[in-house]
Every structure is written in C-alpha cells, then in structure tokens.
C-alpha cells in the first residue's frame, strides 16, 4: 500500500512538473543562495595585500546579475515606485511558497513595494522545502522577494519569521536572527487597541500533517497539480483583460469536507489562544483569509500568495483588515519572445555583414 502511494506521488509530481515546465528563468542553487548573502560595501577600496580568506569565494559560475545581488528595491527612487501607497502598523503574510511555480512572486513584490509597516510578520510556509526536495525551481523573481524582505529589515521594519510545516527546518533557529529577520516559533502581537494576538502558522493543529504525514505529502502533490491548472487559467484571463481569480480556491471551497475541516481548525486555534491568555489568533496554513469572532475570540487568517493573494494588516488606529492584491499597480514589462530575439540577432548580423 505504501509503495503504491509513493509510486502515485512520483507520477503526480512528474505530471505537475511537465505542466509547470522548467524554463530558462530558473536559477541554479548557487544563484538562489546568493540572495541570502550580505551585500558588499559599494565604495570600499581593495586592500593592498588582502589576507587569505578562511572560506573559498562564492562560485564564479553564478551569473553576474545574480552575484551582484539584483535587488529591484535598490534602483534609483522614482515617484511611482519608491513611495509606498499605504503605511500600516503591522502586516501579516504567509504561505508564499517560494520555490514553487504556483508562487505569485510578481504580485507579492508589487504589494511589498506599495505597502510599508512598523512590523512585518512572515507567518510560515515562506519557502516550500517540500517541493524543493522533489525538484529545484527558483526563478529570479523569488530571489527578488527574498531581497525585498531583507532590505525592509535593514531599513528599520521589524521582520519576524514564524516557520510553518513547509519550512519547518527553520524552527530549530528559534530566537536567532538572519539578516535582521528574527525567527520565532510563535509570537505575541499587541494591537494599538490593546488586544493580544497569538501569531502562529497553524500546522500544529492540523491532524493530517501531524499524524498522517504520507497523506499530507500526497495531498500536496495533488494540490500542486491543481495550482498548475490555476496558473494557466489565470494566464488566459490576464490576456483577456481580467483580474486574477483563483479557480483552485473556488473548487476547494465547494467541497463539503473542506468547509467542515476549516471550521474545526478555526475552533482549535481560538481555544489554544484562549488557553495562552490571548484575545485572539493570527495564523495561515489553510489558505483562507478570514477575520471573525469564533467562540468569543478573534480569529484572523492572513490567507496565502498562491491562491487568494491576500494579507492581514493593522492600521495605525488598530483596525484589522484583509487586503487582496489581485491587480498589479506596476505591471512588469512584457517578456521578449525567443523568436523576437532571434530576429533581432539576425538583423544585426546582416547589418554588420553589409
């Protein structure tokens, strides 16, 4: 039985990879790791006789643009891109799933560019370690998200990373800081109105993840396949001039058992928040943005960045809101097709020959 399930997982993962494809934009492992390297001083003169380095330099095979740490936020300031549209007291985002084709990195970068906050909570599943184990996928836009978060931390935003089940390896670093981003197993946030909110990813209250790991992995493979269909579906919608709309989320919420599971999850979360002496909870994990009272406690879910493209924010007055970022304020330039590049190259060669 276990062997059959593993075989099914393998087939589903293979099908998903075929649907998702592996384009030229995918960066190698060394290039992706360059995003986490601290930036070198821009004007530091080279020493006359540099001492021997204790570690070998970063591999020279990394593309120059990546090795120089491309950071879209370090471009010269302009009125349209450098000034944030909104400023909040706190922002919560989760379930970004960097390392997967379903990650909506372009929309997230646009959101981070136009929204600033005193505190930024990364509430788990920021990097999808489950998918990266199956196959490497790390395009430049995922590097840009990491760089954007690191730069926000350097510029004074208090960034707290609360790991989830897909990046649970980071839980062993509880209390440590990486690039000014602090890792916490969970956190307590006090709103401007004095409410104490327990911040946690929520996977520890998911019975499937905790007691049927194989089923969680199988479900993740099926979910990846659905997201592939969702991605192509929204590509067609974009070409027709429509905003982003989640087909996968719509299908999921039509299933009766899924609705029942979400209700059970919400009750479990608020009960634990009450036990910890808090007035409510902020979590992610189930990819369903929500703010409502559950059993006399405040339940907040910040959603995700593969389906709903949502975040939870606290205004300066202490009001909590769900914001959806389904329209780009700064759309990226359309990619140049390979055919167009070949035609220009041929034209240039002809001109030189003439």
TrEMBL record:
Cell membrane listed as a keyword: yes
Span list, region Disordered: 43-83, 335-354
A GO CC term assigned to this protein in UniProt: membrane
Record's keyword terms, sorted: Cell inner membrane, Cell membrane, Manganese, Membrane, Metal-binding
Molecular function in Gene Ontology: metal ion binding; UDP-2,3-diacylglucosamine hydrolase activity
Record's compositionally biased regions (Pro residues): 43-60
Record's protein name: UDP-2,3-diacylglucosamine pyrophosphatase LpxH
Originating species: Cupriavidus plantarum
Lineage, uppermost ranks: Bacteria, Pseudomonadati, Pseudomonadota, Betaproteobacteria, Burkholderiales
């Amino acid at each position: 039985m276990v062997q059959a399930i593993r075989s099914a997982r393998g087939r589903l993962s293979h099908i998903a990879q075929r649907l998702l494809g592996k384009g030229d934009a995918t960066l190698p492992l060394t290039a992706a790791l360059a995003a986490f390297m601290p930036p070198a001083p821009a004007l530091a003169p080279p020493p006359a006789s540099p001492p021997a380095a204790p570690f070998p330099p970063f591999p020279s095979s990394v593309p120059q643009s990546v090795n120089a740490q491309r950071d879209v936020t370090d471009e010269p300031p302009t009125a349209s891109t450098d000034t944030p549209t909104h400023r909040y007291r706190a922002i919560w985002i989760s379930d970004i799933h960097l390392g997967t084709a379903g990650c909506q990195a372009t929309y997230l970068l646009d959101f981070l560019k136009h929204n600033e906050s005193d505190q930024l909570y990364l509430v788990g599943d920021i990097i999808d370690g489950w998918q990266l184990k199956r196959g490497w996928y790390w395009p430049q836009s995922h590097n840009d998200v990491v760089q954007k978060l690191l730069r926000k931390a350097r510029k004074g935003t208090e960034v707290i990373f609360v790991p989830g089940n897909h990046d649970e390896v980071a839980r062993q670093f509880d209390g440590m800081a990486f690039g000014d981003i602090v890792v916490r197993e969970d956190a307590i946030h006090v709103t401007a109105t004095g409410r104490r909110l327990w911040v946690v990813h929520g996977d520890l209250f998911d019975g499937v993840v905790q007691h049927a790991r194989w089923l969680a992995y199988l479900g993740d493979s099926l979910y990846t396949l659905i997201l592939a269909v969702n991605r192509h579906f929204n590509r067609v919608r974009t070409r027709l001039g429509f905003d982003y709309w989640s087909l996968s989320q719509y299908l999921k919420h039509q299933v009766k058992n899924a609705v029942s599971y979400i209700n059970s999850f919400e009750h479990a979360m608020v009960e634990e928040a009450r036990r910890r002496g808090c007035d409510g909870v902020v979590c992610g994990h189930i990819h369903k943005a929500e703010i409502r009272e559950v059993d006399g406690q405040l339940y907040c879910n910040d959603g995700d960045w593969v389906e709903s493209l949502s975040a939870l924010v606290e205004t300066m007055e202490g009001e909590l809101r769900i914001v959806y970022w389904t329209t780009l304020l700064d759309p990226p330039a359309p990619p140049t097709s390979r055919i167009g590049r070949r035609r220009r190259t041929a034209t240039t060669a002809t001109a030189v020959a003439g």
